[in-house]
């Protein structure tokens, strides 16, 4: 998607039809829009998302009130006031014009707002504009899916929300859209429905035994579906309960007297998590050692017996290490011993060497025996290392459990103090926390129980499938139905495997991209980690051990920006390789409002340097303070277009403001000529 222009009419602060905002592209791919707070930067950013998706950012208040206030005030009673925004963009050598229109009516009871409607036209080769044959949402969604739009149009001041824990489900779903996984999901669902239909057909034409087995299988599958749906509901409830717990803990931190106890509890819970992780690592190492080297313990007697046999053969001279038939034959052919003596045929020396030929074993057998001997000796060393590893990891597990016990005793003590705290609000919060913990425990237990039931039911379904396969299907229709069922299941299995591999591969690649971008921007030694559920965290590697880092707001902003950059690179690469599944585009814009938030000078400079390289096209909306200094210097050479939002205030005592660009002074805030507030869009003229 290449953004060409944006035009507004009576949209929020912008009265009447605005000048066309033409957007930069190519080597100078940055469009900068300057404006003070309240001038309409957020409205401009949301104009893009409203037109294309009917969506707004979190910071955009009163979403239904889009029509300009002045236009409404000057309108006749009962007459519709139109409000629209128009985005012109190109994709796949076609130019599109997307316009979303809404209306408002002024009446004695107030203002009635009518929901917006999207219109999409495409330019023909002869220059005429024609409505698209497909639904506008389908075309735009194919180019840049709605689930991904938040990574390309976003509020920089709230960018850190992208990495919040409660956003992981949203991120996961958006990424599935990116990979085209949803296409695979739909295929798997449709194939599953087809398989059920085929099995129904088979039950109608099959014998009594097949009908019985198929009916039992359908019953089991229905139970699996119900339990799987419940698992989804539990996952959502766990997220909700986790957020409630976080909120209650936050309230406790704000309570006088309880804050210190709550801080200590947070630290102890963090320690408990770390000790559990250590135990998990030690248990995994223990399992790897047993599965990889445990067999050596049972080979000690066999190794001793082999060494005894091997030693006896050597004592008898039946194994001549290093002396084989080929070597002796070569000596006899050359008629000279390695000591220099001649081996003339018929001589005593020649006869002695020939006698060794009878004693020497076949070379391959001898070499093999020697190699086995080396391996047997290695087994003894492995056994010693194995027991040492087991002792070490069991000691780690014991130590971890001891520490967990200590921490839990301290947590119980804190819990008791908070529960009986003199301040009634604190004790009530602790009781609420107890309820949440109990709910979380119940949900986790139910999850485990459901998973066991699902596994058991799936095993029974698999067993039934085998029984169905063994049935004698003599009739041609029965055989055909069974073959179709088998082919459908095979397709489901293959698509499921493809989906799993796609997700693992992309998640791994995305983590590497995020780490690379983060390292280029941040001066900290921290490393972003991305879980298989798309939870993004920062870790610090000390002495070979990774520990979570409580990221600051600035670090979360950089982490989020790195994630967006990784997503863009991923979209670009995967759309080129998987155009039948993922987004149908490899060109992507970024439109960002106030991208520098609360960052310090170094980070502002690094981000300003990196931003133009992340996307093919960049639209930046900034205040004067956000733009000045290092940001302007880093981006200056890449600016293709520049605009100023001139805010007109009706206040008589408003403090005017201006910005100097290209040697010309442009008003940012000025006194309005009437009683209304409104914003004008002024293009910066550089004279070329």
- The class by helix and strand makeup works out as alpha/beta
Approximate helicity band:
55-70%
Our measurement of the CA-to-CA distance between the termini, rounded to an integer number of angstroms, reads 27 Å
Q: Total helix count?
A: 17
Search tags:
single chain, about 700 residues, alpha/beta, seven-stranded antiparallel sheet, elongated
Structure commentary:
This protein has helices spanning 41-53, 69-74, 136-143, 168-179, 181-205, 208-254, 259-293, 300-315, 325-334, 348-359, 363-419, 424-470, 476-521, 553-577, 601-614, 624-627, 630-635; strands spanning 2-11, 14-17, 21-22, 30-34, 80-91, 94-107, 110-123, 129-131, 153-155, 527-530, 536-542, 545-548, 589-593, 617-622, 639-649, 657-661, 664-671, 678-683. It is an alpha/beta fold and 688 residues long. Strands 4, 9, 13, 14, 15, 16, 17 and 18 form an eight-stranded mixed β-sheet that branches. Strands 1, 2, 3, 5, 6, 7 and 8 form a seven-stranded antiparallel β-sheet that branches. It has a three-stranded antiparallel β-sheet with strand order 10-11-12. Helix 6 (208-254) packs antiparallel against helix 7 (259-293). The mean pLDDT is 80.
